[in-house]
Amino acid sequence: MPDPRSTHQNKASRLRRWFEPTLLVVTTSGSLVGVGAWAVGAPGIADAVWMATTAAAIVPALVWMVLALWQGRTGVDLIAVLSLGGTLAVHEYLAGALIAVMLASGQTLDSAAQRRASHDLHALLEHAPRIAHRRAKGAIENVSADEVRVGDLLLVAPGEVVPVDGRVGSDPALLDESVLTGESAHVERGPGDTVRSGVVNAGTAFELVADARAQESTYAGIVRLAEQASVERAPVVRLADRYATWFLPLTLLLAGSSWLITGSPVGAVAVLVVATPCPLLLAVPVAVVSGMSRASRAGVIIRDGTALENLGRATTAVMDKTGTLTAGHPAVLDVINAPAIEATEVLRLAASLDQASPHVLAEAIVGHARRLQLVLSQPRDASEQPGRGMSGIVEGDRIEVGKLALPESRPRWIDTTLNRAMLDAAAIAWVSREGELVGAVLLRDPVRRDAPRTLRRLREAGLRRLVMLTGDRLEPAREVATVLGLDGVHAEQSPAEKIASVREESRSATTIMVGDGVNDAPALAAATVGIAMGARGSTASSEAADVVLTADRLDPLAEAMSIARRARGIAVQSAAVGMSLSLLAMGIAVAGLLQPAAGALLQEGIDVAVILNALRALRGHDRGERTVPPATQDLLHHFASEQNELRETLHLIRDTADLISGNSRSTNVLAALRRTGEFLDQRLVPHERAEETQLYPALAAALGGAEATATMSRMHAEIDRLSARIRSHLNLAETRRHIGDDQVEDLLATLYGLHTVLLLHFTQEEESYFALAETDQGPLSPEAPRHAR
């Protein structure tokens, strides 16, 4: 059954939407008819029309006064009633008619502003899925979304909203996730992939296996936040209400003083007329709600006005590591092989077996192998031992992947793997065939590509201290903190310790906490402002948070902070300017220099101007960043894709150097140097030169000049120089048919130097340029994994 309170609220809203414009038409028409009658020499008719217009506004003014008192706003609506009654009492009918027009126009303007400001929040509610098509006994039945249970098989038709969280069935799905993420590009989800409620089916019909009920799904949590966001009020609004508590007695005192000074009640009425600030006080919540609406369009749902105000004055940010500053899931960092086997074969064997495992590390290995288009075999007799890993038959051989026992007499490549894992804080998945170790896969949770740039913007938005809070080990936490330039690290924290750390930070500054997991929920609640990565975060963290980021990226937070600061400033500005102008006009009226009719016109202008000023919070503002045009966006996508492919082969340079340091005279070493030369000449150098001639000029135009790309252009020159040096060494070695002893030292320095320069250059481009592309954020990893040696 529908909620009776909701039904009454909807009826009242419809009535208000109809009544207020009608009252505005009536009062405006009455005022103009009176002016016409006065102009043709019929002052008696003019006064009668103006008096009727004034009387028509008194009853609505009384209703608004009662509603204001009911909502906790004291006094100012009483001034409106007194001014209307006062104009009738002293026969200032024109002033009364103008006040009536002022009240009607102010209420109409405010209602329109509130509807516009709340549009994005209400759009979420209207978008909420209500119907689901459930397969049952060979037929499809239409049921309410609330009736869907976990495990139900649903059919999502083209153009429909996904009703619950679930997994794609046998056929892939093409989805529009812009409602949740703000990303305009459609996303394809394959069989078994997770789909969140609220997204729209942009392709053909697909089957969905429900993983949650509608009330527990992603969109339901966002809707609950939106419902609260539309009704909560901020402290800055209550400041306006408190202003009314002293403004009313001051107004009455000044009105009485005017009566005493001028000896006429007309002066007192003039004071009451210019002190009628109903729309003025409504300008403050308009600014707050406008800011919340603006933030929602940027992919940030703010629970209430209090959160908006606190977000706008925060100076410290505490951030969880996993899923917030890092990708939240492991990625393959490197594949290391024994001498008798290729790295691609190690990865293929491990991925073939791990197809039978639901473990998060196994998913990362299988996903990486599939992205490299490796042909995987189906495993047999696969089993998983908790804490050890997978075991099974692949192509007739017993394969094991996971934590395996190391031989007492370890070959060099195993020590290399252990050292690399220690230095990179990576997990190791050892791979064995028929009981013999043949390789290892290193995995690590990479830093998010958008994190460095977002943290810089957060500092620009006013944050002075950035702290990481994580339950992870200290070593990987410190490495991430170093890469991102954080001010502090709290590692190996339990949920209770996280709360203590957040409270400690909150004691010295207004603090925001950003997290996405269930274990972050208590810390989010303890912070001044809790912020949840709601796109894939837990329901617990979203419910505990004051702010939810609907996109799986950090940069909307920096945008939201800028919006919050601006909205708060506009709200305070609106209140201060309106109060000052009203007090100035009241002072003039006390001296008898302002007649009621002129005062009504003046107050009308003040109120409308201040409300229009509050509506500025709806609009965007210049953050100092330039918009990247579509043509440049296309170039960014193209070169980012090329660079990702280059990362996959970048290991050739370092591998060649490793071989040279072992035995420079080997024929395999010269062949490796040949492959490296071909990679440089045919792929890397052409890519860098194309960036220099195509991408960088376009970026310079978008970013404000060639200085924006000058440093990176210098890197291109260094890459070209080192590549030419390697080419010279290769030509000399080809003449000799081997690498000479006199070449080894310089060749090693050049190869290792080029590898380091490329890693730095790629990372800087991804962070500074490719992060500007309107696309899903990938990880900011120090090196792409090796898949061939």
What can you tell me about this protein's structure?
Keywords: ATP-binding, Cell membrane, Membrane, Metal-binding, Nucleotide-binding, Translocase, Transmembrane, Transmembrane helix. GO terms for molecular function: ATP binding; ATP hydrolysis activity; ATPase-coupled monoatomic cation transmembrane transporter activity; cadmium ion transmembrane transporter activity; metal ion binding. Belongs to the cation transport ATPase (P-type) (TC 3.A.3) family. Type IB subfamily. It comes from Saccharopolyspora rhizosphaerae. This protein is an alpha+beta fold. It is 59% helix and 14% strand. The protein has 27 helices and 24 strands. The strands form 5 sheets. Strands 10-23-22-21-11-19-20 form a 7-stranded mixed sheet, with helices on both faces. Strands 2-1-3-9-4-7 form a 6-stranded antiparallel sheet, with no helix packed on it. A 6-stranded antiparallel sheet has the order 12-17-16-15-14-13. α10 (278-297) packs parallel to α22 and α23 (630-649) packs antiparallel against α25 (667-703). The two termini are 67 Å apart.
Short key terms for the protein model shown above:
789 residues, cadmium ion transmembrane transporter activity, Heavy metal translocating P-type ATPase, disordered N terminus, transmembrane helix, ATP-binding, nucleotide-binding, 5 domains, six-stranded antiparallel β-sheet, Rossmann fold, alpha+beta
